[in-house]
Structure prediction request, 315 residues.
Amino acid sequence: MENCTTADSRMQNAILLFQEIIYIPVFALGIPLNTIAFWVFCWRLKRWTETRVYMINLMVADSFLLFALPFLLYFEKYNHPTDQLCFTVKNIYFTNRPMSILIIMLIAIDRYIAIKFPLQAKILRSPLKSASICGFLWGILILYSSLQSQFSVSSNQHCLEKPSAEPSYSLLFSTVFGYFIPLVIVIFCSVQVIKCLKKKLATSPHETNLIQKAIYIVSVNLCVFIICFSPLYITLLLGFVVDVAGAQALCLKIRASVQICACLANSNCCLDAFCYYFAAKEFQEFPSLFPICISRRSKVNQSQESQPPVEQVMT
Prediction:
């Protein structure tokens, strides 16, 4: 059976051109934007918070991903063989893209806890706990990526070619646990945070503006996450189904779709830099939301026994 990795030359040339159009601006913009973000988060901000820890780790993942992009472009264009450089770059790439996804998930969970459970947040959240979680995830992903490289070794193939046309259950595992489960968590946490913030009764124009900004930040981050990563992982899932069904006629189309969708996913390492700006403001603005949430929650708890439900009071 013909391997799915052999592509039509004209289609491949068109994909290479598309990758160059996307990756060159992403790399050119991503380097200065991430450098500025490092400077802001590492030296300009005075207070260490959970969000600051997560954002620094996200910047590290995005920077390594940016570093890998020129090599991926070179490997694809010149059919680079499978050697030590190939293994190194692939390990960097397949470690840092999932890490970016997981950190975005952790940020969503952290916001959910901080806004939904402000009284318990002081116990559940701390910069040290955030750093420990990130360190654990780095270790797991580096180990998993290294094992993947060792078990997927195949002779007489180019660096970025799929080892075989057989279904990859490790890819299925990575797709489900590396994206779709985090996606569900990010959507749930973001929606709950937005609902919670919309229920807040602001007592001043400043509080109203603060809540609107928080809702905007959470909404934008959720949309960027879904738009960037969903096409790639849906396509990877379809590729697994095609491999299981043995539909070799669709293999070239799936591979081309994966390459195109990967460009969109990898551009996230540049788009994240625009979210850094909002996250930097979050350090100054979100903490003042917590007293608002706590005061509202406390007032509700104190009045539940002596007053009718809030819905009746509002009506």
Observations:
- The domain at 9-285 is CATH 1.20.1070.10 (Rhopdopsin 7-helix transmembrane proteins).
- The CA atoms of residues 94 and 145 lie 6 Å apart.
